């Protein structure tokens, strides 16, 4: 049992000198309902103060402690509420430590940004380790020597008080910084310091307190005790985190059990640390457990349950925070007016000590400032002052002070003549300091942050925010027009509606700015600094990448570990957007090198370790492939937004090239994987395809359930089977012996889906006429515009396929094993002329099918011909981007997913067709029924959605879309912004005469 556990055991049922007693054992049946009343009224009062906080901006926790102090001081005047507060103030402080503190610390660690925490870890350890020790010694010195408590305190007693007074409160600090809107990295530094220094302050407190009580100790025993407490706690937290994660990983669609497991893990970890033979620090174990769950455990939670878990923990954290701060205020109010040995001079010394405490914290920060600037993110001058001023004290410090106050050993005045004074000074100073820091520091920290201009928004970012508000105003105006046509709202007071909804306030904010008064001016970003433009563009691109990553995770396109790694690597680039993009470099650094993987391949047939080697290869290679393909897909989806930014072409090209270089490197790595490990990649492809089908089943079932097509019972029956298949797929292993390493034409090429529609005689044609080709790295396979003799299939190596677009831009595609070069050459109007240039990136082996054979089969097999045209679409969208409309920005796989749902039409001349959702003209020419040259659409062009009919001018192949093509548009799009400004100004002019217009309609 730890020293803290011994303290809890010894003080659990004894009455404290300051009026505290053991709690439940001394409570009568008549008194017990008062506890329920206090909790209910506390939460109700907290709800009112939370509403007040939202309306006035007053910090929440300082308001709670002020109300608590008032209730504590005048509890006799509040009737039943006062009685419940009086009873609650007698709660044993050990119960506060055991019930409330684990929840508050775990929730804070669990919701911490692990990547930012990891980057700031050295600075956090400096502040929470040597920083707390230095602070404890300085505060102890101030109490004993400067404030004149030399006769009242021993040095051990002074250092015990110093350790207690050094413990900053994570709940108070985090709540304050979140309200102020400080940066995530600075929030994490403060929060991390508060989390860890709670544990280290607790350890120092236990050591000094034990020495004060005369426990036998030597320097060696003190050191070993410290190491056991400080080292054993984190180790236990890590182990509990692994066990909890293992359990969470095996829970499917059970929100209740998932939340329960997190609570079990939290309290079991604390109990096992404090009340068993281990005797380690429970607080440090909870800190590490929370951080472990943030880093690894969160991704083990089933995606559909994650929101519920966070909702439950947010509620529990809010409830505990409200009750503990209200209770803190009650105890502070009660103790500060009832301590018998507290004299007038103690009250005089209290504000002096508060000043000394702030000076001591400043000296501690100055002492370690060179290290704080060097490691992690570093801190600037403004952050340094906020770090000093933001060291709020609260729940944990008061809990430790109350533990001292109720300690039975110190009540023996013969053995400890200064024990009574130590107990009362501890609770007095901790109560006073907690109150002053929360009321003074807490309420003025916002003003300090604003004065130091810590939260500074770049001008270009402020411009984007202004565009958002303008578009919000336009959307509200459109909705207002619709509402005015609603016959059920005829009697509405529209001026009042605009006022209540805040629409007029938004308009006034925009009009007050210079841009809001401009009319008809084309918006531009040319006035901004080049570095600022590139930095902001990278920032928005990376944020878009993060959005795509989490969308892919939520849609089941990647696993939690892959999403977490991608998110972390994007965060690295977000740390400094002044530097070129390095997302792929960060991703690649997390992969195992090929030499290690080859070693595992050699070990896979060994006895005992062979199974481990196989599992490692399967899981690691699948993870690598998943991360890489997810990055490529997300990056290519995000790239088209860059083209919409109203920046100079040189800026656009710079960022686009940075992103393309990253994507090309990823493509090359994928190709290298396929070349070196074709058997495992084939197994990964099989597993991912099966996973995609299972995700489709989930989505389909959820949609049918939500629409009421199937009831809950039928849904659960079917969904249970799907979930079991998902679990089986996740644990599936592959028989390595079944995978053939021979890539023959029959077993490799003819198994591709595009050849599935061929007749037996057509397959025999391909078998007879194919040839094998070898190209060395740098060899040109074919050149754009030159004669094209073969359709190639890559069986080994990597090829770059480059094409020239009609807008003079260049586009390069990286092709690996299994890729075709290229079906676009088979549908090119120049017949046997290539549309691109293919060059071997590495030594390559290719199968070649004669061009004439492919053309002959296309003329006989219309299904095969359709597939060839569909496979070639991506090339012509890239070659003619100005004719591709919204298709130009789509990533290849997403484009394929969209067109496979579309309808392929082969129309003769003078046939008509409607395109409600648009389409794409592959061959031929069409014109709108409203005749005119502007309505003619040529081949390889996007057909915009229209309610009017089109007529073919000649035989045509058309892809008719059957659903809406969603397109994400950048808010920085030049045309988009110009239209927004124009619409806003028009609405502004019309609104000035709106009342007159409405009257005329009457």
TrEMBL record:
SUPFAM superfamilies of this UniProt entry?
Answer: cAMP-binding domain-like (SSF51206)
Primary localization class, coarse: membrane
Query: InterPro entries, alphabetically?
Result: Cation/H_exchanger_CPA1, Cation/H_exchanger_TM, cNMP-bd_dom, cNMP-bd_dom_sf, RmlC-like_jellyroll
Instruction: Give UniProt keywords alphabetically.
Output: Cell membrane, Ion transport, Membrane, Sodium, Sodium transport, Transmembrane, Transmembrane helix, Transport
Question: Which Pfam families does the annotation name?
Answer: cNMP_binding (PF00027), Na_H_Exchanger (PF00999)
What does the record list as GO biological process? regulation of intracellular pH; sodium ion import across plasma membrane
UniProt cross-references to Gene3D superfamilies, sorted A to Z: 6.10.140.1330, Jelly Rolls
Spans through the membrane: 34-52, 64-83, 95-117, 124-147, 153-177, 189-209, 229-248, 279-297, 309-332, 352-372, 384-406, 426-452
Q: Where is the Cyclic nucleotide-binding domain?
A: 754-869
* SMART domains to which the protein is assigned, alphabetical: cNMP (SM00100)
> Where does it localize?
Cell membrane
Quote a single Gene Ontology cellular component term. Answer: plasma membrane
- Gene Ontology MF term list: potassium:proton antiporter activity; sodium:proton antiporter activity
Q: What membrane topology does the annotation report for this chain?
A: Multi-pass membrane protein
Q: What's this protein's name?
A: Sodium hydrogen exchanger family protein, putative
